[in-house]
Amino acid sequence: MPINIQNGLPAKTILENEKIFAIEDDSARKQRVRPIQMVILNLMPKKIETETQILRLISKSPLQVSIDLMKIDSHKSKNTSEEHLVKFYKDYHTFLNNYYDCMIVTGAPVEHLEFEEVDYWKELCEIMEWSKTHVYSVMHICWGAQAGLYYHYGIKKQMLSEKMFGIFTHHLEDEYDFLTNGFDEYHFTPHSRHTKIDEEALLKDKRLVVLSKGEKTGSNIIVTKDYRQIFVTGHFEYGVETLSQEYFRDLNEGKPIHIPENYFLNDDPEQKPILKWRSHANLLYRNWLNYVYQLTPYVIENIQNVDPIGTSKKDEHGYSKAFIK
């Protein structure tokens, strides 16, 4: 949540330079409050597990968040019961006239395919295009990040010689960015993927900013300068047992798999995994929700009128929910 300070307090400029939200009394009195509206496009096979992991992180914010769950219409899930899908999920086309403060696009186990070969690629492109005018900020995760970078910016993915699998160290590129504010200089993120993004193409695109990267993993958190698009190549949302379950599953199925790096105590699969990323995962999602909360208009349909820097046009009462002028 932002801090409410006296009008004209000199600290406001310093705090804003450190990307900390500070609202002067006059602006605070004009603010109206409503729940954040979020939609989650869940592309993962085990939807209940993924939705639980994401909702766990969202719940750490003091803000009220209203959640809708979206599924792809052109693909039938094999690992989640039809009863669960019918009860809790809706097809994309039912959301066409909805507006959201934020959206999450999850990963998907389709890395071995070219994007255009994925059976729901056309529908996913329609959803990503829809989100540009109906969602203020979209967070893409793992394959979802690769798909988003490819669709929006033409940045391709590349196959790895072996699976990027384990808990990896990343360092901040900007200590005072909105999304990573409060992060330690070095932080951990789980990765589980067979592909990587084209780092050279990423660095050439001046519309994108790398906030966090690792020596082995490459860019980890990537954003547009207005934070309308966020791309996370790892899995901050993973639970402590997720990589363990993937490891033993692949091992039992005879697939080529190595022990996840920097994960089990003493790299011994018989030992408990070590949870190293929870605090930074909570921070990332709290910072994102706080940012979205401050900058989206109270009348949610006015998202389509929000300027690139995050300020919105005045609503019918003559003011915006955003505090940045």
UniProtKB/TrEMBL annotation:
Compartment list: Cytoplasm
Enzyme class: transferase
InterPro entries for the chain: Class_I_gatase-like, HST_MetA, MetA_family
EC number: 2.3.1.31
Alphabetized UniProt keyword annotations: Acyltransferase, Amino-acid biosynthesis, Cytoplasm, Methionine biosynthesis, Transferase
Primary subcellular site in the record, as a coarse category: cytoplasm
Catalytically driven reaction(s): L-homoserine + acetyl-CoA = O-acetyl-L-homoserine + CoA
Site residues (Important for acyl-CoA specificity), renumbered to this chain: 111
Origin superkingdom: Bacteria
Sequence positions that bind substrate: 163, 192, 249
Single GO molecular function: homoserine O-succinyltransferase activity
Gene Ontology CC entries for this record: cytoplasm
Pfam families referenced in this protein's UniProt entry, alphabetically: HTS
Pathway: Amino-acid biosynthesis; L-methionine biosynthesis via de novo pathway; O-acetyl-L-homoserine from L-homoserine: step 1/1
Gene Ontology terms describing biological process: L-methionine biosynthetic process from homoserine via O-succinyl-L-homoserine and cystathionine
Site (Important for substrate specificity): 192
Catalytic residues of the enzyme: 142, 235, 237
Role according to the record: Transfers an acetyl group from acetyl-CoA to L-homoserine, forming acetyl-L-homoserine.
NCBIfam families tied to this protein: metA
PANTHER family: HOMOSERINE O-SUCCINYLTRANSFERASE (PTHR20919:SF0)
Assigned protein family: Belongs to the MetA family.
HAMAP family assigned: MetA_acyltransf
Record's protein name: Homoserine O-acetyltransferase
Encoding gene, per UniProt annotation: metAA
